[in-house]
Amino acid sequence: GAGVSQSPSNKVTEKGKDVELRCDPISGHTALYWYRQSLGQGLEFLIYFQGNSAPDKSGLPSDRFSAERTGGSVSTLTIQRTQQEDSAVYLCASNPGQGNYGYTFGSGTRLTVV
Amino acid sequence: GENVEQHPSTLSVQEGDSAVIKCTYSDSASNYFPWYKQELGKRPQLIIDIRSNVGEKKDQRIAVTLNKTAKHFSLHITETQPEDSAVYFCAASGGTSYGKLTFGQGTILTVHP
Fold first, then answer.
1. Average pLDDT in chain A
2. CB distance B100–A48 less than 8 Å?
3. What pLDDT is attached to residue A71?
4. Which of B94, B105, B106 lies at the smallest CB-CB distance from A100?
């Protein structure tokens, strides 16, 4: 696609429920990233996929968080048993990979846990 | 891993003045340094970047300088305008963080008309 697409744009969920956030990167981009941005805060790294390599999961805050990337394209970030502190904007980004490049970010999913 | 520190956290200037935001990084092997602008409620967007083989890069009213010896880089905005008001993030990658950006904490820039 022309840009990085994320869905849903907004998600309100009850504490304890599971949620799935979707990211569709720019076509041909082999690198895909998930970041989290709490209100008024910086960009917290969560996970990084590069081609067929094992993902870098070093930023996932707990085992309630997981992500997968199917077919080297679309990625899904899953948060199980959501907590109020999970409320944030979840940003996905992609780049061509195979080197150091800037990211193109999606518009994000605003997650609110009530 | 890489650690990026950004200062100041807030910056207020009058329209037409210059603004400077500074970042330091910890990994001497880092070699790519982008800057992002995030307007309220919007996604971060890349505005300029620099690689370690150059010391300065300009694009109209914005410029970035890099001092590899001191491990710091700066964003310079000249002739600021109200539409420059946003949060600016610096980042670094390379070395132990190859392919993955580590971001600074952000600077809230306010340009007063």
1. 93
2. yes
3. 82
4. B94
